[in-house]
Amino acid sequence: MRILITNDDGINAPGLKVLEGIASEIAGETGEVWTVAPAFEQSGVAHKISYTHPMMIAKMGERRYAAEGSPADCVLAGLYDVMTETRPDLVLSGVNRGNNAAENALYSGTLGGAMEAALQGLPAIALSQYLGPQTFHADDPFEAAAVHGAATVRALLDHGQWDSADYRLFYNVNFPPLPASRVRGLRVGAQGYRRDASFGVEPHTAPSGRRFLWIKGGAQHLPTAPGTDAALNLEGYISVTPMRADLTAHDSLTPLREALE
């Protein structure tokens, strides 16, 4: 199996090292793991593509490249510049430092990479490691992902739905904020919503007198509705959420037609 991996934390991020191990286990001795990751951190860029300016790409080692762009850019670079002879069989994005559950999924560059792969007609999985009191300062905050990652990916490859729709399925996986030994298993859940935890801004004044704004996230320990991604993670489960890039509110089509047409 040929696997392309990327992330949004950057080419030197520890989570990418974890993903390299997961991908190597899935690819097997006869497979290949190719890395095309951002040269610098690209957290929060979602599905951004560098449409208005070029990006530099540099070979860092065998099957390892850094691109000055977003995760979606890196997937495009991997498909149309790095791996032109044979496309990958699978694209993995992550392992993100911090969860991409609930509303975080909408901002996530990690999911942006997986989404672009799906739009390009490839199976794709995004993987993220929830952080919390038991993992944030641990010697290995990615332990749950490292220990359970390959089995989770393999379970999806063997038993997940892999369609060929125009907006084809991809998967969002979040590992709970626990040591690997305390992970309770895997559960499938919808994307949740954290109430009263939206992003905002925090103003600061520089020594020069200029005013700057830092984007500030909401509390991450708030559970979402029962059975949804963040709630499952906080209960100790690995959450798996099937996703599509189609943004249509299908439940509103019929009543809107009746009202407007």
TrEMBL record:
Compartments, record wording: Cytoplasm
Q: What is its main location?
A: cytoplasm
Matches recorded under SUPFAM superfamilies: SurE-like
Q: What molecular function does GO assign, one term?
A: 5'-nucleotidase activity
The enzyme's main class, written as a single word, is: hydrolase
Q: Does the keyword Metal-binding apply?
A: yes
Gene3D superfamilies named among the record's database cross-references: Survival protein SurE-like phosphatase/nucleotidase
Q: Which cofactor does it need?
A: a divalent metal cation
Q: Which residues bind a divalent metal cation?
A: D8, D9, S43, N96
EC assignment: the record states 3.1.3.5
Please list the residue ranges annotated as the Survival protein SurE-like phosphatase/nucleotidase domain: 3-195
Q: Which UniProt keywords apply?
A: Cytoplasm, Hydrolase, Metal-binding, Nucleotide-binding
Q: Which InterPro entries match?
A: SurE, SurE-like_Pase/nucleotidase, SurE-like_sf
What catalytic activity is recorded?
a ribonucleoside 5'-phosphate + H2O = a ribonucleoside + phosphate
Cofactor: how bound: Binds 1 divalent metal cation per subunit.
This protein's GO CC annotations: cytoplasm
- Function, please? Nucleotidase that shows phosphatase activity on nucleoside 5'-monophosphates.
Report the family membership. Belongs to the SurE nucleotidase family.
Mind telling me which HAMAP family this protein's record contains? SurE
The protein in question is named: 5'-nucleotidase SurE
Query: What is the organism field in this record?
Result: Rhodovulum imhoffii
